[in-house]
Predict the 3D structure of the following.
Amino acid sequence: MNLSKNKKVLLLTLHNDKSLGVRCIAKSLINEGYEPTVLFLKSNIYNPQPVSEQEISLLKEFVLKEKYLFIGISILSSFTITEIQKVTGIIKSVSNVPVVWGGTYVSIMPRYSAEYCDIAVKGEGEKTIVMLAEAFRKKSDWKNIPNICYFDKNKEYKENELADIVQNIDDIAYPILGYENTYLIESNTLTQGDPILSTDFYEISCSRGCPFSCSYCCSSTIRRLYKGKGKYLRFRSVESVISELKEAKKKIPQIKSIRFWDEVFSNEKKWVENFVELYKKEINIPFQIWGHPLMVKNDIIRMLSSAGMERIVIGFQSGSPYVRNKIFKRPESNEQIIEASKIVSSHKIPEVYYDLMICHPFESLKHIKETFDLCLQLEPPFRLNIHGLGFLPGADINQLAIDSELYTEEEMDKMFKAPSDVQFKQFYGSNSGYYGEEHKKEVWADLIYLTQFAAIRNKVIKLSKNPDKNKNIIKKLKIKIENMEYEKQEILKRPMTLVNKIIKIPDLIF
C-alpha cells in the first residue's frame, strides 16, 4: 500500500462564514486524524459581492501554499453557483489537486455539478468526505465510494448509490468552532482566525430534515432521494445541542442571541421539556426559532417563551387557501393560522414574524387581496417578512410553473444559473418585482406591509376601500415607515395619537 503521510484537506465556502456544512465536515475530518484548513471566501450571504481581482490573487496564493489531498467546496444554494464556478476554474488554473463539490445544491444538481468539479458528493457528506480523504491518502480507487458522482475518462457520467442516511445524528460531529486553522478572504484581505468568534449571535441546528413538503423548497426532493434509506427527519439529543451551545458560550462570551436554524423547531413535548430545563440552567441566552402554524401548541410556546424565546418566525406564505394549499402544498387552513397567531401573541413573545411570498406569477389580484384580509385577522403585535417566490433547483413548484406555461424549461434553467445578484433581486427585491395585472398588485403589496402596524390598521382598512385612488398615499405611508428604522418597532406599541404625530398622517387624506 502506497500510504501518503499527507493528511491536509482544504475546505472552502463562499458568502457564508457561519457555514454549518463546512464546519461539520471539518470536525468529521479532524476526528479521523486529518488536518483540514477552512477558508471562508467573503462572508455576506445577504449582500453577495463578486470576488475581486485582489481576492482572486489571494486565493491563488493560498491554494499553492500547501499540498492538499483535495479541495472541498460547499454549495448551499444556486445563489452562489456562478461565483463558485468561477472560483473552481481559478483553483484548477493553478493547481492539479482534485476539487470536490458538496452541499444541498450538489445533491439536487449532481450531474451539472460534476461538469465543473472532479467529484460531486450527493447527500449528507460527513462519512463520504472521510472515505475520500482515506482513498486519496492511500492512493487507492475512490470510484466505488457511495454518494459520489463524476465523469469518467470517457466522459461518461457515473452516479453511485446513496448510502443509508445516518439515523442517530448525534454520531455526526457538530460544527467546529474557533478552529485555529481557519481563514477569511474579505475586503481584499486575508486574515487568520475563525470569524465567528467576533459575532454577537450563534447559529445552530437541532435537526436534519423537515416534516413538511412545501413545493417551493428542495427539502421534499432530498426526502425522495433517501426513500428507503432511513427516516429523513431526525433530531439531535438535547444533551448534544446543549453541549454545542456551552462550547459556543465559552468561546464567544459576547453572544447576545442564539438562532436555531432548523426547518421547523421541534414541538415534541418531552424533547422541549428537557431542552427548556437544560437551556435555562446551562445557556440562558435569548433565542430565535422558525415555527409552523400546525406546530404552534400552547404548552410548547409557553415553555419556549419561559426559556427566553425572543423571536419566532412562522411561515404561511399566502393568505389565499388556493395558493397555499394547491400551489405551495401547505396543509394549514386560515383558521389554523389565526389560532396560531393568538397563541404566540398570548405569551408576549417580543418579536413575532410571519413569512409571506407575494406578487409572484401564480398569484392573482384576488389571491393577494385574500392575503391582505388574513393579515388583518392576525393577532398583533407582529412583523412581516415579505419577499417574492424564488425558484430553486429541485423544487416541485418548478415543473408546475413549466406545466402552467409561466416559464419554459430553458427560462427556468437560466434562472438557476443566473448570477447571485440577479437571483437575490428576484427573491428579495421589492416584493419580487413581479406585479402583473397592470401593476395593481403593487398597491396591495404595500397595504399588506402596513397591516403589521396595528395602531394604523383602521386607517389602512379605509385606504384599502379605494386602493387605486389612494395608491400614492399608501406608497408614501409605506416609504415613510420603512425609513423610520429606529422607531419602527416602537410604532407597533404606540397609541394612535402618537403614531399620527410621528408619521404625520392627516385625517383628511381618508
